[in-house]
Specification:
single chain, mainly alpha
């Protein structure tokens, strides 16, 4: 599972960059451990069910009705395990995305630090104007600092940290500020996507749909488009707008074939009796 390597590499990158976010890193490591344990448990369950099913199908007996019922029950259990495995694999993908994005943020922070650092040998304000620097230089530095803050990296990572901790209201505020201040960065679409996720996690499904629609309208080619469309479908289902949910799930399967989102949409359609 590549996420293990990403988390390990990220630990080194965070330390090297001076951008230590222990709460986020600890959460990612916990997520990795959780999905690994879940996958191991599900794999063992599936293996045991496969063996039982093979043994039952090869068993001879006169009571075919009982045998068919037992086979049907085992197959139903296998289907449940497969669905749980699908959901767990989706969690792995989500963790991978989160670690990837944080790694990108760390690189942004590194680049920003390099640009902000004065060249070696250039005197500071204190050297130019005495121990405390001239009033004009001090005022200028303060104004520059105010104009530079908050940085894209600071805003995004802070909002994402709130999301990871379940502080959804604070996360929404942070992602909204990011989307407003920095609409043309690589993570602008992601910020709007996470606003929808925050609303979904709070059970505000109508607000989630509105947020996903806003993201898709502004960034139709986003790499989060498939996920946003899927979450829209799931929000419709949660609102008991089953018809719209089915239509949206079918949109995902038709427009994003071969993706995890399409696989999840197909599974959900089957559970709704609309394969």
């Amino acid at each position: 599972m590549r996420v293990e390597g990403l988390v390990a590499a990220l630990s080194v990158a965070l330390a090297a960059s001076g951008c230590i976010m222990p709460d986020q890193l600890a959460q990612y490591q916990k997520d990795v451990a959780d999905v690994q344990q879940s996958l191991a448990t599900l794999s063992k369950s599936q293996s045991e069910l496969d063996k039982r099913l093979a043994a039952l199908e090869g068993k001879s007996g006169n009571d075919d009705t009982v045998k068919r019922a037992e086979i049907a029950d085992l197959k139903a259990q296998l289907d449940t395990v497969v669905r749980q495995t699908t959901a767990t694999v989706d969690k792995v993908d989500q963790v991978n995305v989160r670690v990837d994005r944080l790694s990108q943020d760390v690189q942004v922070a590194r680049d920003a630090s390099r640009r902000a650092a004065p060249p070696l040998g250039v005197p500071g304000a204190a050297d130019a104007g005495g121990a405390s620097g001239s009033p004009a230089l001090v005022a200028g530095a303060a104004a520059a600092g105010a104009a530079a803050a908050p940085s894209p990296n600071t805003l995004y990572t802070s909002a994402y940290a709130d999301f990871s901790k379940g502080n959804y209201a604070l996360a929404i505020q942070g992602f909204e500020e990011y989307a407003e201040r920095y609409p043309d960065t690589e993570l602008s679409d992601n910020a709007m996507y996470w606003i929808g996720e925050c609303n979904f996690s709070q059970g505000s499904f109508k607000s989630a749909i509105d947020a996903f629609d806003g993201m898709l309208e502004k960034y139709p080619q986003s790499d989060k488009a498939a996920a946003a469309n899927l979450k829209k479908a799931l929000a419709f289902v949660q609102l008991n707008q089953i018809g719209q949910g089915i239509e949206q799930l079918r949109y995902v399967t038709a427009n994003y074939p071969g993706t995890d989102e399409a696989r999840i949409a197909t599974d959900r359609l089957q559970s709704l009796g609309k394969p």
